[in-house]
Amino acid sequence: MTTIATHASASTVRLGMWLFLASEAMLFGSLVSGYALLRAGAPAWPSSEGVLNLWLALGQTLLLAAATLTSPRGLASTAVRGRLLAGGALALVFVCVKVVEYGAKLDANLTPAANLLLASWFTLTGVHAAHVAGGALAAAWLAGPGWNVAEGRRSARLDALGLYWLFVDAVWLVLLVGFYLV
Amino acid sequence: MTDHKAVGLLYGVTALVFLLVGFLLMLVMRWQLAWPTTPLPPAIAAWMGEANAPGGYVLPEFYNQLVAMHGSVMIFLAVVPLAAGAFGNYLVPLQIGAPDMAFPRLNAASYWLYLAGGLVMLASFFVPGGAANSGWTSYPPLAVLATRGQDFWLAGIFLVGVSSTLNAINVLATVVGLRAPGLTLMRLPFFVWAQTITALLLLLAFPSLQAAAVFQLMDRLAGTSFFLPTGLIVGGVPLEGFSGGGSPLLWQHLFWFLAHPEVYVLILPAFGIAAEVLTANTRRPLWGYRAMVASVVFMGGMSLVVWAHHMFLTGMGVVLSTFFQVTTMIISIPSVVLITTLILTLWGGSIRFTVPMLFALAFIPMFGIGGLTGLPLGLAASDVALHDTYYVVGHFHYLVAPGTLFAIFAGIYHWFPKITGRRTIGWLGHVHFWGSLATMNAVFLPMFAMGLMGVNRRLYDAGLQYAHAQPTLEWNAFMTWSAVALGLFQLPFVVNLAVSLRRGVPAGDNPWEATTLEWSAPSPPPHGNFERTPQVARGPYDYSVPGEARDFAPQGQP
Predict the structure, then answer these.
(1) Hey, is the C-beta of B3 within 8 angstroms of any chain A C-beta?
(2) Which ipTM was obtained for this model?
(3) Model's pTM, two decimal places?
């Protein structure tokens, strides 16, 4: 079967990403409001003291910010493919740190079943970490098999990935405030 | 297989198979309701298995699985994929003069995810404890404590949700980005408007159920207590090993935030199909096109703020229930606008009573019955009495079965010549229509009376042990025979499609003399749809324009 020149224009690719992020915003909106409602409705909420590590979370914030800043902003950037891969690698480091953190928590018997704080923390940060991993995969795909397309399309894809990283960062900030600062 | 027409057809055929599965599950339920003390016929009992129906007697646990899976299959795997997946994918690019969807590969991925989700859900019949058995709504704590099948249900729902999201992004990006030159928003066929709002609802509402599914899976697999309250007692024994503190109502909010807009996902494409079929067969423009577009946009927005009218009995308080009954009454206004404009479109038309037209005409009063019987459910005071009775079952079945499904049948007969290049056989269509109309009403109409007499909808013996249900018991046999007849009346439909596919009379490009762009493409449309990109110079329904030689002017005609 022949391929038809139906390739979405660059603006349609960006629109597609915005629509996807709208849906993602509803996903995290539902998860966060679930957490907020449970917490607001609880007679006593478990303390996060000695359970959640703010300094580790701040370190993770830096990692995520580094991943976003390393990722190329459009085709005009130098060494686009290298920066794509570096950004993706930093994102993967974030995921690995999270996995190690989860393991340490479970070893310390701080399981999701222990209380609603840990339940929410594991679930929400877990879904977020899955999104970071997804972004890293997308970066690798863009630098590899997805590279050989028309320049306008490649540029639109890079923009879309950039938007995605900003969204993932914003969600992380919400989680950071919601779990560590409030 | 990334062509939007192939994806649309895959969606359509798969969803029709799921429709049959959901129908067969229902027949077993209907047997049980009609003859609760009689074993199933041996051939059917053998299919159900000794574990589910020992000696042919359906176990209550198995009946619960049938209820939950009938609802889930019909809504998530049959009717929505037909209305949005099949019709949306096949027709939206054609009606806007585009060669394909904006993201063809995502489109194909959306179909395969849907199929995977559906198979995962159905596979749950074969795990220990059987399929999901907590209703299509999967309310906790029941669903959290249910058998393994519930995990499959949740995983299936999650996949179907991802599939819906991809499909919705595609429809929206396509309508925004790929319209033919000259096809302004107010020249879009109403069908495209309906699909656009449907896509927007799926995009924004489904993530809420996915979030809820993640929470419930955590509760079931990781031992969390998102939906398990403190001090839960199950079967007289306090539940051990859970931290508690959760809220079962949180699930209901997250669930209905999707599931109420889902009702509009079911009904809006049906309105879209009805508008196309009615205009082509009355030879008149759609009456009040602008009012219809405004209504459908308003309805989409409002449908996101009515969800808690499903929860009047949860003790949510007067302020909240007042809010939700006001929004619910408001959303009935655009529904009535849509129905009224469709009826006014008929006025003074020279009606062609084709088979699709019959289905579209019947859709109007059937949807009317379903919609009007919903009003007492939207008011908290009357809902208290009617909640969880057969009245509710009658109400939503009128919307979905003789409502949406009739519109879908209308659409299948209407666009079959476009899809295959051949006409269907008229008399078989008439048998299908009249038979379905009579039997569907025979199945669902008695439910209103049953409900008003207070019969609970979840009794697996139809209320054998309740005094107030006694007068209604004997109706069930009639309803069950009607359901069997309804099934038999689908045979002419299947035969019609199968025979017409090979031997139907060649239809040409525009057998109905219709105006929208798909009718100016070849039948069946080739890969890429149009020989050259259409230039649109007029609105979608230029029928019987005074002074014109013909009684229709295609959108692509200058």
Answers:
(1) yes
(2) 0.94
(3) 0.95
